[in-house]
């Protein structure tokens, strides 16, 4: 018998994990339009921790309900294979990319699209649509089997970088010519820097003292400063990936009216305080706008071009550490959650 497993975390203390062993669904458990996926390869970064930190506010706990009251399943991005199917167009062996649970298996109710399918399960209906879409690799022009590791790590993050950089340029950087970026060592931040490099703005990265060398070595920022070091006083936009109230306050104190826009994107420091001086960037909102402006095809073409330019270099910046099984996944989760991870290494887990 194939064994199944699900990793549940304590919503109040994300370091509290338990591996639940269970028997996965079989063909006879599937209703019409349902497909059983076997999770195969996933990435795990600080972004997945954010799903837990703001799980209640944004609804991230709702995607893969399991574990009972007070517990939940953290979503991951990755590849899975169809192992049982009631849908002719999604036969056994189909490989898909999308939003997956920390679990060995997932049942989806598939509505076919031109690029794959949408999971129409009732409990996902109210959640942001971008997370419910799955790409079938054989019909994804951007898919390259040799780049699966880069895809599970970077694609959701770089999509945010792409949309954020686009929004800034669309707003002419709010009149500023300097962009200050916190948690500059994070993948979403340096992906944004990669997109902004040729746009005529000066890029200043802020990072932890121990990550200055790595961040400087990326060669993407014009200057890299440790947290606490003074930035030049000039009209600036702040892109906040850290969520640190201290870093934000120090910038406001130093720049005053020269801080023309303060945009919150992430919270790697795991603080959830709201600050009225900040506007929030939520990638699914920008995605809706650009899908309306450019059409799905126009967006895919623009993103594909940016993605190819990024992946051509990304493999040189960060080494990939491979892990296996639910135990490997729990180890990586604890390391990423505690912030002890080296930004020069990224984690991929296979099952
Ligand atoms: N709004 C959106 O739509 C959207 C989309 C994608 C990502 N994001 C957010 O962007 C942020 C970056 O995500 P990522 O996956 O790119 O991160 P990542 O590559 O895993 O970032 C690692 C970096 O984050 C900082 N960090 C990580 N854990 C920490 C901890 N426990 N304490 C203090 N600092 C810690 C450190 O950077 P420093 O030393 O440089 O601070 C570390 O080098 C996340 O908060 C994510 O949720 C938002």
Automatic annotation (TrEMBL):
For this protein, the record's SUPFAM superfamilies field holds: GroES-like
Q: What is the protein's name according to its record?
A: NADPH-dependent curcumin reductase CurA
Please give the Pfam families that the UniProt record associates with this protein: DUF2855
Name the lineage: Bacteria, Bacillati, Actinomycetota, Actinomycetes, Pseudonocardiales
């Amino acid at each position: 018998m194939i064994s199944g497993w699900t990793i549940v975390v304590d919503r109040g203390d994300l370091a509290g994990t338990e591996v639940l062993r269970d028997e996965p669904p079989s063909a006879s458990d599937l209703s019409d339009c349902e497909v059983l996926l076997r999770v195969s390869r996933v990435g795990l970064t600080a972004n997945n921790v954010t799903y837990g930190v703001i799980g209640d506010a944004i609804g991230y706990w709702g995607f893969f309900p399991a574990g009972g009251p007070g517990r939940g399943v953290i979503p991951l991005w990755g590849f899975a294979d169809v192992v049982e199917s009631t849908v002719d167009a999604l036969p056994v062996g189909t490989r898909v990319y999308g939003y997956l649970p920390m679990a060995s298996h997932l049942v989806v109710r598939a509505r076919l699209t031109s690029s794959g399918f949408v999971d129409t399960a009732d409990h996902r209906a109210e959640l942001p649509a971008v997370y419910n879409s799955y790409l079938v690799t054989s019909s994804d022009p951007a898919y390259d089997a040799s780049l699966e590791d880069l895809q599970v790590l970077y694609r959701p993050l770089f999509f945010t970088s792409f949309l954020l950089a686009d929004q800034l340029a669309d707003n002419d950087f709010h009149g500023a010519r300097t962009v200050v970026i916190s948690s500059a060592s994070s993948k979403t931040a340096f992906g944004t820097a990669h997109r902004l490099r040729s746009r005529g703005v000066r890029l200043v990265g802020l990072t932890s003292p121990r990550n200055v060398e790595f961040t400087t070595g990326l060669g993407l920022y014009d200057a890299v400063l440790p947290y606490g070091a003074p930035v030049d006083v000039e009209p600036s936009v702040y892109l906040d990936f850290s969520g640190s109230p201290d870093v934000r306050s120090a910038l406001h104190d130093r720049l005053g009216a020269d801080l023309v826009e303060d945009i919150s994107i992430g919270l790697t420091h795991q603080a959830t305080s709201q600050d009225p001086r900040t506007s929030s960037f939520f990638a699914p909102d920008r995605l809706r706008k650009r899908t309306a402006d450019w059409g799905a095809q126009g967006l895919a073409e623009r993103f594909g071009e940016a993605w190819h330019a990024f992946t051509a270099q990304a493999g040189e910046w960060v080494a990939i550490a491979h892990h296996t099984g639910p135990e490997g996944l729990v180890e990586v989760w604890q390391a990423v959650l505690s912030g002890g991870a080296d930004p020069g290494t990224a984690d991929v887990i296979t099952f």
